[in-house]
Amino acid sequence: MMELLTDERGAPQLLERVGAGREERDDLEDTFEAIYRRRYRDVFRYALLMLRHEAEAEDATAEAFDRAYSAWRSGHGPSGQALPWLLLITRRIVIDKMRRRRLFAWLPMGALRPADEPASAGDTDRSDFWLWFNSFARDLPPRQREVLILRYQRDLDDQSIGEILGLSASGVRSLVARACEALRGNPEIWR
Fold it and tell me: Residues 33, 76: one domain?
């Protein structure tokens, strides 16, 4: 961000303001196109980590931005930062997809699987930490896995996570503590 300041002699100088935080840059996003370009990857990664299928994550991301655009046009855009608002929309879509998946899982359809399903969850993840995390997070309840993803991968604060999950900031901290304790209790970690 550039500012016009004067030096000790009174001469105007154009200086770049250092430390313009991420929150300030989010507030400057005044068009939906800017939000889409900046946040598409974050929303897609969140959906992918929650659904664990690339095609479903792409569908959820597209549907989330479609709903967000409809809300934006009707004047119901984000009141603060765009990322928590988009992740809340995405979370609702992911929950719907997971419910449908459970609903249809009991139907006797044989061993039908999507053709593009990855061989393992590790096929879609790139970093070593998230490979490790996915292997241990399978044992966690979905809500605990989700709070760890939002906290440590998306680097959101307690208030933003609380907005997404419908919890207070202290409820978020408690859920994170329980999830970390469950991970620490995993015997694979101590080998």
Answer: yes
Q: Residue 40: give its domain's CATH number.
A: 1.10.1740.10
The overall pTM is greater than 0.70:
no
Q: Give the domain range for residue 91.
A: 22-103
C-alpha distances out from residue 42 to 45, 89, 111, 161, Å: 5, 13, 33, 14
Model confidence pLDDT, tens digit, residues 16-43: 444 444 444 444 457 889 999 999 999 9
Inter-residue contact 117 to 57 (CB < 8 Å): no
The CA-atom distances, in angstroms, between 57 and each of 61, 118, 147 are 6, 13, 18
CA distance 130 to 142: 16
Long-range CB pairs of 127-131 (<8 Å, 24+ gap) are 130/49
